[in-house]
Specification:
β3 and β4 form a beta hairpin. The chain contains eleven helices and eleven strands. By secondary structure, it is of the alpha+beta class. A seven-stranded mixed sheet has the order 3-4-5-2-1-6-7.
């Protein structure tokens, strides 16, 4: 979907429509990596979407549904001129423009997310939050910028904003200490707490930060935290098919314009999982490591790159009717992408 309307216009429209339907919006915030980018553009963190948080009361299922209906109705305003809106159904809008719909409703968390895809730029994620126990993964993406003063300025001021004429906005850090989090952002430091509270453990984001040149605040403490990250990741994504879908989706959404970094990212993830996974049985661990390795090979194939490394053993599985005694096999010299440390007794090595 191509939307020329700026983010500021988007949250104005959504907020206005919600309030007309009787839903009070307590505040609107720019969240996560986009807020970090505003506060310090030279962080190396980047951002993949515009994440807006609307503070609302979501006490009943009817309110959840009403919020969704309002957003879908607002989408019509963002369609190009000349489109016959009367022929577009809510289902058509959802299939064409909504990338993700999420609703969480339990004792500690009550929120919903509507992610709008944008073919020509950053996606827009609209998050409607009543309560959310954990609002950040790492200190460097824990920032929120309250946008209410911008809305009020647009409604009250007759003059446009300029470099010397603009409202003041407030920034906060959900990490707790704003100055400490800003110091981490400026100096590319990795810090978090209780990663077991994060869906997926923050494992994928952690490896992304490592590839971008961020360094742990404490190597010793981070080694311990890595075990919690891996454990929570495999609790949330226990099935190998789920792991594949999660990794493919992460590679697709977080490396736009940075495709050359995907191999280093997967090798970093492979190393962390190999070093810090303590909650899986041996065959499960090997299965996940092989999955990551397979994706790394695919990335190299897509980029037509052959890495420069030596000394690899290539394994293959002979057919059931072939015995080791009478089977002739050939020496194959292969340039590998990583060392193979596992051996399989029923497999024959090409050496």
């Amino acid at each position: 979907m191509t939307r020329d309307r700026q983010c500021r216009g988007a949250h104005e429209v959504v907020r206005s429509r919600l309030e007309k339907k009787g839903i009070t919006v307590h505040n609107v915030r720019l969240n996560g990596s986009a807020a970090s980018h505003v506060l310090h553009q030279d962080s190396g963190l980047g951002y993949k979407d515009l994440d807006l948080i609307f503070g609302v009361d979501l006490k009943t299922e009817d309110v959840f549904q009403l919020v969704k209906d309002v957003v879908m109705d607002c989408l019509l305003d963002f369609l190009p001129e000349g489109v016959n809106k009367d022929k577009i159904t809510p289902m058509t809008l959802k299939e064409a423009y909504v990338q993700k719909l999420v609703k969480v409703c339990n004792e500690t968390d009550r929120w919903s997310l509507i992610s709008l895809s944008n073919n020509s730029g950053k996606n827009v994620e609209l998050k409607f939050v009543d309560s959310l126990r954990r609002q950040f993964e790492f200190s460097v993406d824990s920032f929120q910028i309250i946008l209410d003063s911008l809305l009020l300025f647009g409604e009250c001021s007759e003059n446009p904003m300029a470099e010397n004429f603009h409202p003041t906005v407030t920034g906060e850090s959900m990490y707790g200490d704003f100055e400490e989090a800003m110091d981490h952002l400026r100096n590319r430091v990795i810090a978090t707490r209780n990663p077991e509270e994060i869906r997926g453990g923050g494992l994928l984001k952690y490896c992304n930060l490592l590839v971008r040149g961020f360094k742990p605040k404490s190597e010793v403490d981070m080694k311990a935290l890595q075990r919690y990250m891996c454990s929570r990741f495999f609790i949330d994504f226990s099935d190998i098919g789920e792991q594949l879908r999660k990794l493919e989706g992460y590679l697709q959404s977080h490396f736009v314009g940075m495709e050359s970094n995907r191999y280093d990212y997967l090798m970093t993830l492979h190393r962390v999982v190999n070093e810090s996974t303590v909650c899986l049985m041996g065959h499960e661990r090997r299965q996940t490591l092989n999955l990551i390795a397979m994706l790394a090979v695919r990335v190299l194939a897509e980029q037509n790159i052959i890495p420069t490394v030596t000394n690899v053993t290539c394994y293959y599985q002979p057919a059931p009717y072939v015995s080791e005694i009478n089977f002739n096999y050939y020496v194959t010299h292969v340039q590998p992408f990583l060392p193979c440390n596992q051996s399989y007794p029923t497999w024959l090595p090409c050496n």
